[in-house]
Specification:
By secondary structure, the chain is mainly alpha-helical. Strand 1 and strand 2 form a beta hairpin. It is built from eight helices and eight strands, in the order H-H-E-E-H-E-H-H-E-E-E-H-H-E-E-H. It comes from Streptomyces violaceolatus.
């Protein structure tokens, strides 16, 4: 008789689990966070044109009119996989695939729009309003942010992963106060506290 195959428990995909995250601490990790529950059954959070637009709004970027959502999503998904491979390697000491490094370097080549300042009527300095980006400029911004993260020792030292074994979202510690243990206290932190409370209450 064949051995019984034990399947991992199914995760109910709730609206909260599918929600886009913008709290990873930097642009490239906010892209990585568009996949949830990586250690188990991954949850796609940016799989269509509507979610792509929502993610761009959430990170403060705008794509130029006329882009092909499927093309942009395909490119972002490829960059996302490479970014996760590279960033997670800084935590678990695995060597990222060479194709991941090559892709990031390739996408970082085009120069994104140079930052500009504007002066308001009352004399305040502000960044110029959102400018529409080509697909290439968008990918370059994300790729360059990843390169900056990985080559800046101070920033890289703040890279961490959520302590929840079913989450493991990559994020940056703020660097002040207690080290960041959870991706969010309102999410994994509260679930861990609730689980600990149930365990204590059930103890004899």
């Amino acid at each position: 008789m064949d051995a019984v195959q034990h399947q991992p428990p199914r995760t109910r995909v709730t609206a909260q689990l599918r929600a886009l995250r913008f709290d990873a601490g930097t642009l490239c990790l906010n892209l990585v966070a568009t996949v949830g529950r990586r250690p188990g059954v991954p949850v796609e959070r940016m799989g269509d044109a509507e979610r792509l637009e929502a993610w761009c709004r959430g990170v403060g970027l705008t794509l130029a009119d006329g882009y092909d959502p499927r093309d942009v999503l395909s490119s972002l998904h490829a960059l996302r996989a490479a970014a996760h491979d590279i960033a997670s390697g800084a935590l678990d000491a695995h060597r990222p695939r060479q194709e991941s490094v090559d892709l990031v370097n390739l996408l970082a080549r085009p120069a994104p729009p140079a930052p500009r300042l504007e002066v308001t009527a009352d004399g305040a300095w502000v960044a110029e309003g959102r400018r529409a980006l080509s697909k290439e400029a968008l990918l370059s911004l994300v790729a360059r942010d990843l390169i900056d993260l990985m080559t800046d020792e101070a920033r890289r030292s703040r890279l961490t992963a959520c302590a929840s074994e079913v989450c493991r979202m990559l994020c940056l510690d703020s660097g002040g106060g207690r080290p960041r243990k959870w991706c969010s206290m309102r999410r994994c932190g509260n679930r861990a506290k609730a689980a600990g409370r149930r365990l204590r209450e059930s103890a004899p």
